């Protein structure tokens, strides 16, 4: 009886110690994930320039819908105050450009079929905004969030307009995986307004290589995969990159947004 009691105590002690190790491991992963994300934020906040080529694919699924859309974008940024985000063939838009060259920010949309949709607006929409945040907010749906993801890491003033990478909570390392030959931490975080996000962060350079977002609505759900390729940090970008030429005859409309 005494021997059985002794074995029981040893078993309980082992289980308690094992549970403590598991808890410690989970806490370590959360702590490490927070440090990795902070290093990533510092990397973007301190770079003098940034450019990449990206892709966004959104898949829709539900009882009455099953579809996907994909497009390619380019992002250019240079301190202070120079910015350009451009995508071609994104949904109903043939072209979508947001840019800023020190002063005010601009938005240019070219529609694919203006005769079928919003004919009164014409083929082109060109608008001027007081701030880059306002211009990005005006076209947020067009870019499926890509016009905000990395720009909000580069420009702190863009944070808060939408939930972004810097706002995720309950961060934890869930895997380690190579993305296009680059070893990455896979970190999961919770978006307080939707579902979980996963981030692929370069182990060496602490650059964001991929984002996976899941959202659930009443009648359908979406999965958005945003990938960043050919990332260049601190390289020279010609100034004419940030001087977008409007099509002939297109007039810019000033938009006042609080």
- Proportion of beta-strand residues: 35-45%
Q: Helix share of residues?
A: 10-25%
Write the H/E string, N to C. HEEEEEEHHHEEEEEE
**DSSP strand tally:** 12
Molecular shape: globular
Q: What is the structural class? A: alpha+beta
- Record the strand order, biggest sheet: 7-8-9-10-11-1-2-3-4-5-6-12
Query: Which stretches of 5+ consecutive residues score pLDDT under 50?
Result: 12-23
Number of domain units = 1
What is the name of the CATH architecture? Clam
CATH topology: outer membrane lipoprotein receptor (LolB), chain A
Distance between the termini: 78 Å
- Name of the top-level CATH class: Mainly Beta
| Rg (C-alpha, Å) | 23 Å
* Rounded average pLDDT: 83
For the sheet with most strands, the description reads: 12 strands, mixed
What does this structure look like?
By secondary structure, the protein is an alpha+beta fold. The protein has a single domain, classed as outer membrane lipoprotein receptor (LolB), chain A. Helix content is 23%, strand content 43%. Strand 4 and strand 5 (105-111) form a beta hairpin. 27% of the residues are buried.
